[in-house]
Amino acid sequence: MQLGRHLGSPLQVARGLVALMGTRLSVYYENRIPQESAVVVVSNHRSFMDPALLMVGLQKSLRTACHHYMNEVPVMREFVRVLGCFPLAAPGDRRSDFLRRASGLLHSRQWVAVFPEGARSMVATPPPTQMRPFQRGFAHLLLRAPVPNLAVLPVAIAAREETVRPIVPLRALRVFDNTEPLFDRPEWHPIATYQRANLLVGRPVWIAPHHYRRYHGRSAHRVVSDLSDYCREEIGKLLVLGCR
């Protein structure tokens, strides 16, 4: 906590990290960024740098949901905290904990960022134009948090030049989180760093009364799928553009 106060806001920390890494970031479609809304930012995920790139590109401090084990590893725990991240609970309580904490942040008019691909995309880094299936917790958040003027904003992080290196055996991370199935794999955990990246802002969707009616009626599964699929498709199109 003292470290966070010394370094400044998450946005200031993010700017410092991007500068330190020497990443050249280009931002497109900035006119789509909501100005007077509570916002859930949804993005693809392949690097520890992604929360920082989102903040620098959107020019906004974000509260980013991150994996449980990141709060268990010394040094990493401090790093994610100064970036404004909030680690999720252990698997049994993960969904309810995420909904509770993220709803509180949105009610206080803070912006929340989520990576619906989860941790798997960090462990087995996909090609820059590809994504893994989306988990749909963020869509439930949008529809369970009755926040006035709430928007979901899909954002694509397109890696133009990057370096991916193995850093630690996955099984070694079981010391910090023995509940994560990914840590049973024999591979090494990679780390991706960007030399050049494009950040492309998608078209936002504002959560309207008809979304809530469908969610609390007979169309809950469909409206959750629609929002999740829209974000994934929008990000997918932008990734193709951003990686050209």
Mind sketching the topology for me?
Blueprint: H1 2-7, H2 10-21, E1 24-28, E2 38-43, H3 50-58, E3 62-66, H4 76-82, E4 86-87, H5 94-107, E5 111-114, H6 120-123, H7 137-144, E6 150-169, E7 188-201, E8 205-206, H8 209-215, H9 220-242
Parallel strand pairs: 1-7, 2-5, 2-6, 3-4, 3-5
Antiparallel strand pairs: 6-7, 6-8
Helix pairs in contact: 2-3, 5-7, 7-9
Compact description:
This is 1-acyl-sn-glycerol-3-phosphate acyltransferase. Residues 39-160 form the Phospholipid/glycerol acyltransferase domain. The chain has helices spanning 2-7, 10-21, 50-58, 76-82, 94-107, 120-123, 137-144, 209-215, 220-242, and strands at 24-28, 38-43, 62-66, 86-87, 111-114, 150-169, 188-201, 205-206.
Describe the structure.
This protein is of the alpha/beta class and 244 residues long. The protein has one domain (2-242): Glycerol-3-phosphate (1)-acyltransferase (3-Layer(aba) Sandwich), CATH 3.40.1130. It has nine helices and eight strands. Strands 1, 2, 3, 4, 5, 6, 7 and 8 form an eight-stranded mixed beta sheet that branches. Strand 3, helix 4 (76-82) and strand 4 form a beta-alpha-beta unit. Helix 5 (94-107) packs across helix 7 and helix 7 crosses helix 9. It is globular and about 45 Å long. The N and C termini lie far apart (41 Å). The model has no long low-confidence stretch (mean pLDDT 88). Keywords: Acyltransferase, Transferase. One of its GO terms (molecular function) is 1-acylglycerol-3-phosphate O-acyltransferase activity. Residues 39-160 form the Phospholipid/glycerol acyltransferase domain. This is 1-acyl-sn-glycerol-3-phosphate acyltransferase.
